[in-house]
Amino acid sequence: MFRHLTVRLGTLFRREMEQELDAELGYHIDMLVEQNIKNGMSPSEARREAIRVFGAVEGIKDDVRDNWLSRFFEVAAQDIRYGVRSLRRNPGFALVIIVTMALGIGANTAIFSVVNGVLLRPLPYRDGDKLVVLHQGQGDPVANDIGFSPREMEDYRQSRSLSDVVEFHNMFFNLLGRAEPARVSTGVVSPNYFDVLGVKPIYGRTFVAADDAPGAPAVLVLSNKYWEHSFDGDPSIIGRVFRMNDKPHTVVGVLPPVPQYPLEVDVYMPSSACPFRSSPQARASRQFRLLTAFARVRPEATLQKSQADLDIVASQMQKSYKETPQSPGFRAAAVPLKTDLTSNFTSTLWILLGTAGFVLMIVCASIANLLLARMVRREREISVRAALGATRARLLRQLLTESLLLAVSGGVLGLVLSALSVRLLVSFAAKYTPRAQEIGIDLNVLFFTLGVSVLTGLIFGSIPAFARRFDVAPALRDGGRSSHSSQRVRSVLIVAQVSASFMLLIAAGLTLRSLMTVQNVNPGIRTENLISWRADMSFDKFPLTMAPPERRARVAAYWTEYESRLRAIPGVLEVAGGGTFPLNEVDPFPQGLIRDGHPLPPDRQPPQIDVRFATTEYFKTLGQPIVNGRAFAPADTLTAAGVAIVNQTAAKQFWPNEDPVGTRIVGGPGQFRTIVGVVADVRQQLDRAPKAEVYVPVGQTTITGTTWIVHSKLPLDELTRQIKTVSHAHDADLPVASFRTLAEVRSEGLAPRRVVVSLIGLFGLLALVITAAGIAGVIAFSVNQRTHEFGIRVALGAQRSRVLALVLREGLVLVTIGLAIGLAGAYVLTKLVGAVIFEQQTTAGLTLLIGTHPTDAATYIGVALTLVLVAIIACLMPARRAATVDPMVALRAQ
Amino acid sequence: MAPKSDLLQGTLDLLILRTLSGEPMHGWGISQRIQQLSKDVLQVNQGSLYPALHRLEQQGLIEAEWGNSENNRQAKFYQLTREGRRQLAEEQKNWERLATAVARVLSGS
Prior knowledge:
The complex is a heterodimer.
Chain A: H1 2-38, H2 43-54, H3 57-66, H4 69-88, H5 91-120, E1 131-138, H6 150-156, E2 162-176, E3 182-189, H7 193-197, E4 203-204, E5 218-222, H8 224-231, E6 241-244, E7 247-254, E8 267-270, H9 280-284, E9 292-297, H10 303-320, E10 330-336, H11 337-342, H12 346-377, H13 379-387, H14 392-429, H15 443-467, H16 472-478, H17 484-519, E11 530-536, H18 548-567, E12 572-578, E13 590-592, E14 608-614, H19 618-622, E15 626-629, E16 643-647, H20 648-654, E17 664-668, E18 671-679, E19 693-697, E20 705-712, H21 716-730, E21 736-741, H22 742-749, H23 751-785, H24 787-795, H25 800-839, H26 857-883, H27 887-893
Helix pairs in contact in A: 1-2, 1-4, 4-14, 5-12, 5-14, 5-15, 12-15, 12-17, 12-23, 13-16, 14-15, 17-23, 17-25, 17-26, 18-21, 23-26, 24-27, 25-26
Chain B: H1 11-20, E1 25-26, H2 27-37, H3 46-58, E2 62-68, E3 74-80, H4 82-107
Antiparallel strand pairs in B: 1-3, 2-3
């Protein structure tokens, strides 16, 4: 199609330009003739002389034509036509190259589309680059973020370089008015939240200032996903009224399908509608630090300026309020929203892009090798063309055109492959970042693919093109036998492939080993025959307006009752209740721990500890042994003395060289809890070390959102049905959801790691296959070239096994050199990259190597043996052909 | 035959541009004008003139139009583009600098 078009266009222009050139030169000659006649020559003599003076018309025409731009396209069209013809003559060869290329480009395009969607594209919000997330905390405010209280938000609004400071916090509320009570994840936000982000609703409206006024009717805005899933995208939802927190809430708007930051929620409500946020205590307290703060940097201000402003506000707050942490290292920080949203994914992505790049390098070397082999076969053709007057430049151009043709075809196929994998990639990236939905094939990705394809084509095309000398005579004389220089280039390429594959396989091997280590890690709990679910009490059940002592008692009684109902289910062995449980993604809020009799200096913040809640059978259900003291007992109620249990890490950290049992910690103003036991450590995440934890009995708290686990050998669906029935009988408005076995939870927690490891492994496998094919190709080629030699050897009495060994040795020498270089490369790489990315990742990012040393000997030996084995198999086929050469046939063939 | 001098490389472009700085001209006219202005010292070889004209046209320094010549025949007239004028000024300056320098060396001062 394209070819015809260029050719047609070229010829169209050509005809006109040729006519003009004829006329122009003709005019010049005519003028010469006229001049000659004027000088006294006869007309025929004048014309002869004019033509003699003018010179060879065709030569001048040729020189002129060389200056025409269309000439370029004409030659290109010719090259393409010729290239297609020559490739069509050898479809198998073309197919192998295009498929190899497609795999390399597909891998890179797929990973780049993720990088592009998540890291490169601007946020899909108005001036997304001006949006920042605020953090405040000790030392590094991002890592030690303590959150913001409503009154602190007011103070930070004084920063002159920030135009809007808006709040967000996430709550789970019960939404009543649908067939079943539903637990909805709710974003509680400032009324101008959506205006600051620049999000317009698709139906209805977002919030206005009046919605946030005290006593204003409660309103809801639905997220697009929740509206689609739960209301089938029904536009008449606007105006529907649901009961939440003992109040009617009217739906006023539906959001467009924008990614939701900082996390996906079902519905949004203004801050006045949240019973916690709007309570007088929350409004008054400077320590009600529940909020996440977003802000917009003024158009004329810079991030540095706003950072300086925040520092001023933070230090002023320290001077004015004793509730503000008084330590000298207390700071606030503004981080671009984009950075904040992707921070734990960035390094993983660069690793993946790097490994994909390695695959492409191997692909490139492999194709260059194939082309080189083909060049040798085309020696005669090329020599003939050179002899007929094609210049070296012209021949190079022809060869590069063919390479580009192959590269771009492979690139297009690769693009198709990656487009098919986009959905898979989105679900993978969604485990890391809310930006996952933005992943797709856009113009950036198209340009990337085109650019990389062309570049790859130029590289793999120019290696064989420049490895050849276009000497006419020797090629014709030798009858088209390979010269030594090309054989050397081929060997170098194989060595490069082997070493790159080795490094890639080392990466795959190390991460795989690490995954297996993590998978086999003992989390410190049992996971068999345990099922977990969430149960969240309605806030209107025991409103905050109740007297606190009465409310505390009612809440505690509510859960004690629920626990005993669950235990009464026949077949249920143990019942555990708490806030969250090990191996799931939900972490509890850390709090400061102060020991009784160990007061802190006034300028110090108490060291942080994770506070967890547990019912009496919690440790027994999960199989967490009590190593010292006792577990919680039914007697540990509100009326009894406050108790707590710490884990071993906490015991070591807070009670060094001391027995914590019997000592007391501060549990509130004038309140203490006695440590009654020490429990064994648990890994809350398989890939993270245990943290310091303190457990508090559920019966002595006012917890409303709970997680339950029962130990039972009943069939799952039967058990789930029973639990639902019992829960409904306990409280018809109690939603129970997220039923998962602990084995599932354990496996799901490792899903992102498994995907990363599978991707690296897939790339490694790809590299291995391509390299094996490359080795087989090179050896087969060399055997072909040496058929004559082998024929002579066999004729002179060489054993067939001797010939076999000869060929194998040739392959293994290359592989050994490749392995040595790869070993050095892998060592340097793990030293450079491994130290930075693999091990020292302290933030939430994925630490790829856990429990596996980057120079793990078993991995290195295993990978090396695999490569050697594959190389032997790859060499064996051509080697056997060499060994079975019939000397008569081989000699006669020459 | 008039005394002949080979043109320095790159000089032909300068001469063509200079010749065209006045009015549009066809190829024949350009060769005649250069010969005339140089008092027959410089003779432009047609074999270089036409490739040069087409090259300059591709470079966008001159543009061509078909028009009627003095003897009322169709001829291809070339004229400078804006780019071409800028290039002419540039090259003229270079040439003058070179010529002065060469003259200085030759006079030995």
